[in-house]
Amino acid sequence: MKYQLNPKNITRGSQSARIKATCVSALLVLASLSLADPQLIEIMVTADFRDTTLLTTPASLTVLDKNIIDRRQAKHLAQLLNVAPNVNFSSGASRGRFIQIRGIGERSQFIEPLNPSVGVLVDGIDFTGIAGAATTMDLQQVEILRGPQGTLYGANALAGLVSLKANQPTIETRGNVALAMGRFNTQTISAAVGGALSPTVNYRLAVQSHSSDGYVINDFLQRDDTDDIDELSLRSIFTWRVSDNLDTKFTLFHVDADNGYDGFSLDNTRHTLSDKPGHDRQKSSAVAVETKWRGHDAYEWVALISVADTDLEYGYDEDWAFPDICTGQACAGWGYNSEDNYLRDRYNGSIDVRWVSQHPIQVLGQSADWVFGVYARSQDEQLMRQYTYLPDGFRSSFETESRAIYGQLDTHLSDTLTLLTGIRFENRSADYSDSDAVLHSVDEGLWGGRIALQYQTSPRTMIYSLISRGYKAGGVNSAPSLSPADREFDTELMWNFEAGVKGIWLDGRLQAQLAGFYQQRRDIQIKQSLVQSRTDSNASDFTDYFGNSAKGSNFGIEIEALWAQGENLNFFASLGWLDTKYDTPLAKTLNSRQQAHAPRYQFAVGGQLQISDNVSLSLDLEGKDRFYLSSSHDEQSQSYQLLNANLVYASSSWDISVWARNLTNEEVIVRGFGGFGNDPRKYYETEPYYQMGEPRVFGVSGQYGF
């Protein structure tokens, strides 16, 4: 199968079209079957102040459970995000660890200190900005909250929040052992076990080792593993019922990712020429202690303390080639050879204490539930850059402190109408210094919150409207080559206006949610690149920095549905439509085009058929519109549609599955650059460069549960 790589017009072989048409036809045939009357399972949400159900939460959110994780054979969060509407990611590394929600979010990080737009929690532990730790080991579900979480989470959740929750300890002894093997020498071994240590102590232990040679071939080194994956994840959770009124949970989490990074090719293929391939390493160790005390009739006291220590190393062959690439050619003398490496040592500690009402109180004659909390967070990040053209290297220190108080009042205006009001006040201070004598300090007050009106039109249908305010702290650009006016950038603010409907229809066979939103952004933080020619070679230097565009707006719709056609057949569908614009341009092109990493549409549709008592088949189709790859150039990805399949044979205690992702072997761009040249064979002629996503992958997996 051959492809002509042109992101504006990619042509595919007829075989791909036939396979896609056949699979879509299979979904339609499945939909026509008539089976017994089913009932869908209620979906719980745990990321908010109280555990509640998906269909009674007045916000747009997606819950991805274990069934979806297994069906996609996902080993990392990035392999799940395409299922959620208006959620995108950027790679530029071994994993897609930079997340965008509704077109808002970062796409990379180099020397600059980063204030993320999307929060990431793993069992309540803060891994915002370092989502390489977000493996799917022994996960119960992933919850994706869209829109600013100004009350719930604060400064690092302007666009939304992603929360990963593991399977929790049980009284009964339960566990599983799983093995998977696939194309590109992919291997996964995992195990989990849990049960009771005593009448008051339960536990859950889990381990996962995932490795792959990757799908990149290095022609110069004659290796097929320079973009490999090697990830080890460990987790232990202990719950202790200290007394009738006091429960404590201890979580220990460790991830060790020693991945290769050889993602870019001078020829825009999956064949590279680098002589010193890079790496993308993350070693994180974290602990969390959660305590719940119910000793007072009026409220429950909940405290969560977490500490995470992370070592990161990210490096790459900057020239993407070997030194003698021009030997014997007309371009002799044009080549350069350099490496760039970033080592970060990051410490993050937080404490969140909240009081959650157990019984409603009276507020102006109305019954109301309440939450009040205090929060503190400290983060210290030390960077050392090792770069060929900086003999003495570069060092920086970035320390932030946050203190917040927050509260929410849920006022029941009637049996069917509830008014939710929440607010968060946060004080954030930051100190930055580096080896280029750049100093920056800021101390600012920030506030966010939400007002939502929730109306239960029937026991199974709810409509809501929501106004929320989010914020993303300002910061400093570290590059000394910038002008004083470009050195600092301001805090970004956003108002989110949203309305939606959620419900269960067709006698419990259809669950659906629909949301429409409009977001008004002010002082948008936009990443730009300053390109300068080097004096000692034919290459260029790139300086990334953040600036503020005065205003912008993002608006769209999000639809999700689960439909149980029969007892043995169900379907899911999601659709996101997004329109973004810059009301005030930062550069000439930015007022006449979409924001970066904001595809106009995104969808996923699929079905699962229980063919017999032991055999089931699932098919799903996912797709995205093309989108701009950066705010500093006009290069775009291409639109695409990917087909995935999973055939499972299951008994009461074990199952085996044959699976495939990207059946039609589509070319997918996960990161891209434009506006510069890096190929000496073309005399550094300016052209676009793309990092390719996963091609067709297939394999077999087995699991034994007890």
Q: What are the SSEs and their pairings?
A:
Blueprint: H1 14-31, E1 44-45, E2 52-53, E3 61-65, H2 66-72, E4 87-90, E5 98-101, E6 118-122, E7 125-126, E8 139-146, E9 160-166, E10 174-182, E11 186-196, E12 201-212, E13 217-218, E14 229-243, E15 246-261, E16 271-272, E17 278-293, E18 299-317, E19 339-357, E20 361-363, E21 366-387, E22 390-412, E23 417-434, E24 439-458, E25 461-472, E26 475-476, E27 488-489, E28 492-505, E29 510-533, E30 540-566, E31 569-582, E32 601-610, E33 615-624, E34 640-650, E35 654-661, E36 669-676, E37 687-692, E38 697-705
Parallel strand pairs: 6-9, 13-16
Antiparallel strand pairs: 1-2, 3-8, 4-5, 6-7, 8-9, 10-11, 10-38, 11-12, 12-14, 14-15, 15-17, 17-18, 18-19, 19-21, 20-21, 21-22, 22-23, 23-24, 24-25, 25-28, 26-27, 28-29, 29-30, 30-31, 31-32, 32-33, 33-34, 34-35, 35-38, 36-37
Described by strand count, sense and barrel closure, the largest sheet is: 22 strands, antiparallel, barrel
> Which CATH first-tier class would you pick?
Mainly Beta
Runs in which pLDDT lies below 50 for 5 or more consecutive residues are 1-16, 22-37
What is the name of the CATH superfamily?
TonB-dependent receptor, beta-barrel domain
Identify the notable features of this structure and list them briefly.
706 residues; mainly beta; Maltoporin, Chain A; 22-stranded antiparallel barrel; five-stranded mixed beta sheet; 2 helices; globular; disordered N terminus
